Amino acid sequence: MKVAIIGAGGKAGHKIMVEALSRGHQVTAIVRDATKITDKSVKVLEKSLFDLTADDVKPFDAVIDAFNAPAGHEEQHQSSLAHLTKILSGNQHTRLLVVGGAGSLYVDDKLSLRVVDTPDFPAAYKPTASNMGEAFLQLKSHNDVNWTYFSPAAMFMADGKRTGQFTLGNDRLMVNAAGESTISYADYAIAMIDELEQGKHIRQRFTAVAK
């Protein structure tokens, strides 16, 4: 497939790019700084997410959004996704796969209490989690975009091992047999590219936890 990865120079975006390349997909990295992409097999579009147009994304089978809003500008999690849904509106060819957050996952069977709203949720992460959660709610209203939102487990481990051993879920925060809610970036990347290839969660959210 022809895949564009927004934020391919970041930690999560890079892992996803490596996984996509290992499976033979044609990857274009959309980054603000082209020097961050050293793999010569990767095409680079040096452009801000907010400057992307409908014509920019039209050639791709999928756009993977691994954008990470800078500290102090967490509202960009909302505005960035709003911009992407705008330029992809009505485009039935190009999927949008979003690297989401765990804060909007639910901790109860009734799906009434989100992780971000629990008493022990760290205050330092609330701006990011709250804005990502609101962005997800807005995304759910877009029936004219073929979106998929992928929430990681509670502990998203940048340097964790690539095991290929994980369990998928939907809207609830998951824990493994040890009672832990963790996933490595590398395993997350596997699950993301699996979804790219299999398309099992069109206009749905899913999550994954390491076994």
- How do the SSEs run, as a string of H and E? EHEEHEHEHEEEEHE
Number of strands: 10
Beta-strand proportion: 15-25%
Give the count of helical stretches.
Answer: 5
Give the structural class.
Answer: alpha/beta
- Calculate the terminal CA-CA distance, rounded to whole Å: 29 Å
Radius of gyration from the alpha-carbon trace, in angstroms: 16 Å
Low-confidence stretches: none
Strand order of the largest sheet: 3-2-1-4-5-6-10-8
Helix content: 25-40%
Please state the average pLDDT score.
97
Q: What is the approximate shape?
A: globular
What summary fits the major beta sheet?
Answer: 8 strands, mixed
Could you walk me through the main structural features you see in this protein, from its secondary elements to its overall organization?
It contains 5 helices and 10 strands. With 211 residues, it is of the alpha/beta class. It has helices at residues 11-22, 54-57, 76-88, 126-140, 185-198, and strands spanning 2-6, 26-31, 43-46, 62-65, 95-99, 147-151, 155-157, 166-169, 182-184, 204-210. The mean pLDDT is 97. The chain has an 8-stranded mixed β-sheet with strand order 3-2-1-4-5-6-10-8, with helices on both faces. The chain has a two-stranded parallel ribbon with strand order 7-9. The longest helix has 15 residues, at 126-140.
